[in-house]
Amino acid sequence: KVREDILVHERVHIKQNKGKWYISLWFLIRSSVDDKFYQSLEKEAYMAQMKYLHENNRNNGRRT
Fold it and tell me: What is the pTM of this model?
């Protein structure tokens, strides 16, 4: 079972590559040689994940 916040993070990556395998491959290759590109992809995904965690923590009172 995968936590929902991780799924939110990964869904951003799917959105980034428009669900196309060849774009995913390009992102993988480029990310391995371009750290700034990798960081920009991860920043967007982590921001969505943190937003999800913040909203859920506030809504259900659980600590994450």
Answer: 0.80
